[in-house]
Amino acid sequence: MTAGEVQRDETELVSQARAGDRDAFGELIWRHQDAVYTLAYRLVGPDLAPDVTQEALIRAWRSMAGFRGDASFATWLHRITVNTAWTQRKRALRHEARPLDDALVDTGVADGGTTPEQAGEMVDVRAALRAAIARLTPGQRTVLVLRDVYGWGNDEVSAALAISGTAAKVRLHRARKRVRELLTEGGM
Amino acid sequence: MAGICSVAGWLPEDVTAPRMIRRHRAGCLRCQAEMVRMRGLLRDLAALRDEVLEAPPGLHAAVMADLGPQAGAARGSRVRTAAKAVAGTAVAAAAIAGGLVLRRQRAAG
Fold this sequence. Notes:
The structure holds two protein chains of two kinds.
Chain A: H1 3-18, H2 22-44, H3 49-62, H4 73-91, H5 101-105, H6 116-134, H7 138-149, H8 154-161, H9 165-185
Helix pairs in contact in A: 1-2, 2-3, 2-4, 3-4, 6-9, 7-9, 8-9
Chain B: H1 2-8, H2 19-27, H3 29-47, H4 59-65, H5 71-108
Helix pairs in contact in B: 1-2, 2-3
């Protein structure tokens, strides 16, 4: 199956799901649930991530009629996930940032062409990075993850979080600085 | 210079910095070192995107069990229900009116 066929297939599934086809939506969930869960995990940590993922996917189903295809289905799902995470974070005001590294360390992607030593160093760096991100304030973490991990633009982030563009930039600057400090403290 | 360094070294390279900062950065080893570290940090952060966690088992089933109606479908359903109600009322009204007419005709006959 070519990439084009996969894409067409997904377009058909989205179209069928928009028409109320639960099976088609179920297939879309199979394809995207890991990515949605990973984003939720990075934004809110392990305790809330399953709930955020579930709620985001249900919201997506209920809002399928509003999906116009301006962005990819994956991007649209990510936006819903960010909104859901933000809403749940507000609900769980007492939620503390937890280390995110435990589960993520085991899922490091194998990098082709690297020696075992280099791969080991990469895992160390990534684990340290994840731990540093987990120690940011929720607001800083969200902006950093969306901007620097997922490559969102500043306008997208500020719109998704309902904050000004300047506030988003300030948070990003502080988050990067804090991550660097934490990595330095950790000997990285 | 520490004040300028705290800004110049941290500004991403894709951001157009004011001329004063660019001039400072070009001649400041501290800022250049900071920029290199910054570049490394951004590269490492971007690399995290390749990592995907497996969703908890049972999540798919839980979502499917709790889907409920779609927003559009719910609206359509409400519209259909309202239309059926109006149509039903009209039919009932016509039947009553027809019955009254028949009764009057019989009474008149």
